[in-house]
Amino acid sequence: MTVFHRNETRDPLPAHLRGGVIAIGNFDGVHRGHQSVLNQALEIARERGVPALVLTFEPHPRTVFRPATPVFRITPAPLRARILEAIGFNAVIEYPFNLEFSQRSAEDFIHSILKDWLGASQVVTGVDFHFGRGREGGPAFLMEAGHKYGFGVTLIDAFRDENADVVSSSRIRGLLKEGEVSEAAASLGYHYTVEAEVIGGEKLGRTLGFPTANMRLPAEVELKSGIYAVRFRRADGILHDAVASYGRRPTVTDNGAPLLETFLFDFSGDLYGQVCGVSFFGYLRPELKFDGLEPLVEQMNRDKDEARALLAGVQPLGELDRKICFV
To answer: Which of 316, 31, 317 has its CA nearest to residue 159?
Structure first.
C-alpha cells in the first residue's frame, strides 16, 4: 500500500490511483465506527473496479489547535496506515494539517484536493464530517459540491454498538485511561496496540529473572498504569505471549517517566533498536509498591501465571484482530 506524506501531497497523484473512492476522516483508532465508513468505501470501490483511498490529516487537528495539550493518539500515523492496509485500502493520503490549511475555504478543499488532485469519483464519510474555514463545509455542502463537480457522496450514520452506545475515539480513550482494554477492544474491533523502539533500561529485571523489552511511549499516551496480559510482536513479525508493566516502577525508582516493560514468555535474545508492537488483552492489577525485591518477584511470578492463563484462551475478535494480534 502507498502512503503519501506531507511533501508528496504537492506532487501529482499517480494515474492508477486517480478516480477512486475516497474515505475521509481522522480515523484515530480505526474503530468499528470508522470501519462502517471504510467498509462502505471498499464495497463501492470493488463494485466499480476503482482504487480505494483514505484521505486523513497529520498531525491530528486537535493537536494543531491546542499544541499545549496534544491529543492521546490511539493509532499514530504509521500504525493507522498498517491497519488501513490490513482492511484493504490501496493508498493512504496523510495530508498536512496546519493553521494555514485550517483557514482554507470548504470550496477550495473540494476543488483543489478532491476534484483536481484526487479526481474523486465517490466520497464516503461520516455525517458529522465538517471541513473548511470555520467548519463551513458540512454534509449539505459536500452533497451540493458532488453534484457540481461530478462525484458521488455517501454519508454514514454514527455507528452504535450492541448496547446502542455510539462508538467514538474519545470514548475509547476514556476506556484506556481506566485500563479497560477488553472494553476498548470491543469498540475497536481489535486489541489496542502500541508500537515503539525497544530501548535499554537499568537491567534490573534481568537480575530478577524477568528480562524485559522496554519501550518509551509518547508523552500524550494516557493508558492506565498497571500490569497487563499482552502479546508482543517482534520486528520480524514473530509473536510472543507476554506480561507487561506500564508505569513508573514505584518499588525500584520513580523518575516521573512512564515506561512499558514487557517480559516475553519463551524468549531469550536481543531486541534493542527494533520497533516492536504490544497488544493489550487484559488488565491484571494496578502498580504496587512492595517492601523489597523478594515480594516483588513473588508477585511477578503470579502475574506471569495469570497472564499465561488469560492468553491461552483468547480468540480473534474478527479478521482485523486476527491480522494484527494473532498472525
So the answer is: 31
Q: What is the pLDDT along the chain (327 residues), one digit of tens a residue?
A: 778 765 545 678 899 999 999 999 999 999 999 999 999 999 999 999 999 999 999 999 999 999 999 999 999 999 999 999 999 999 999 999 999 999 999 999 999 999 999 999 999 999 999 999 999 999 999 999 999 999 999 999 989 888 888 899 999 999 999 999 999 999 999 999 999 999 986 655 555 456 899 999 999 999 999 999 999 999 999 999 999 999 987 656 656 678 999 999 989 888 999 999 999 999 999 988 777 677 777 888 999 999 999 999 999 999 999 999 999
What is the CA 69 to chain-centroid distance, rounded? 19
Sorted by where each begins, the domain ranges of the chain are 2-156, 191-325
C-alpha distances out from residue 54 to 84, 163, 306, Å: 8, 29, 40
Class of domain 191-325: mainly beta
- Quote the pTM value: 0.92
Pick the CATH number of 2-156 from 3.40.50.12280, 3.40.50.2300, 3.40.50.620, 3.30.70.100: 3.40.50.620
Residue-level length of the chain: 327
